[in-house]
Amino acid sequence: MKTKFLSMTILFLFPLGTAAQTADEIVKKVLDARGGLEKIKAVQSERISGHVSFGQGAEGTFVVELKRPLKMHAEITIEGQKIIRVYDGKSSGWMVNPYLPSKEVQPLSPEDLKNISDESDFDGPLVDYKTKGNQVELIGKESLDDKPVYRLKLTNKNGDVRSYFFDASTFLLLKWEGVRKNGEQEIPWESFFSEFREVRGLKYPFRIDQGSPGTELKQTLNAEKIELDAQIDDSRFAKPVVTESPAPASSAPRAAEDPPSPH
């Protein structure tokens, strides 16, 4: 009876241990596919610039600057108007949106500040995920557009859940899905990653297609240049200074209200 009880205990415990170990193995292969943990952590800053287009037909350019620890300055320029979003890496963030009633610099909402560290972490959520308070679970192997993928479920320290889909052969990220919060509203959101290129030994997606399934909220980011260890002055992450500019002729695309992070 004791032997039978012990066997039953092992039977229940073994799948949990295997799943946890397998999830960590997938995480390691994902980080290795990007170029390796050592190279990822060696990068001190990034500047990503390119072109953005929206489902409503609007187009513009974007620049995202990131610097350790967790500093971010993101801009989208549409018809000469700049939407700016800044985080100082500590506790303060600001935004400027000329398409809103107030053209002044506005502090980021508490909800934005709670989630901004995910956007400004250019290592990504899987690097040192336990230290960051993230939990990772391997859901299993499935198919995405007829391609075998591994699906990881990530729960961050705020309780937000995302699913990440990695190519089963290359271990490069193909998609993530989750929700974006707009005030009290939760909007389903997904991003598809493609056109991977190598920059100083690290793999980056040069195209990201984002949107809310079943809606017109869509945008495509095409990176034209990714600069690693770019010289970025810390003043870029301070409260922006707004200069007078003509009022925009039309409303901004809804998907552009928060400048997107390419990560």
Can you put this structure into words, describing what you see?
This protein is of the alpha+beta class. A hairpin with a 5-residue loop joins β4 and β5. The N and C termini lie far apart (54 Å). The chain has a 13-stranded antiparallel sheet with strand order 6-5-4-3-2-1-13-12-11-10-9-8-7, with helices on one face. It contains three helices and 13 strands.
Query: How big is the Rg?
Result: 20 Å
Which percent range fits the helix content? 10-25%
Quote the average pLDDT. 87
Number of strand elements: 13
Summarize the model shown.
With 263 residues, the protein is of the alpha+beta class. The chain has helices spanning 2-34, 37-42, 110-120; strands at 45-54, 59-67, 71-78, 81-87, 93-96, 106-107, 135-144, 147-155, 161-167, 173-182, 185-199, 202-211, 218-228.
Strand and helix layout:
Elements: H1 2-34, H2 37-42, E1 45-54, E2 59-67, E3 71-78, E4 81-87, E5 93-96, E6 106-107, H3 110-120, E7 135-144, E8 147-155, E9 161-167, E10 173-182, E11 185-199, E12 202-211, E13 218-228
Antiparallel strand pairs: 1-2, 1-13, 2-3, 3-4, 4-5, 5-6, 7-8, 8-9, 9-10, 10-11, 11-12, 12-13
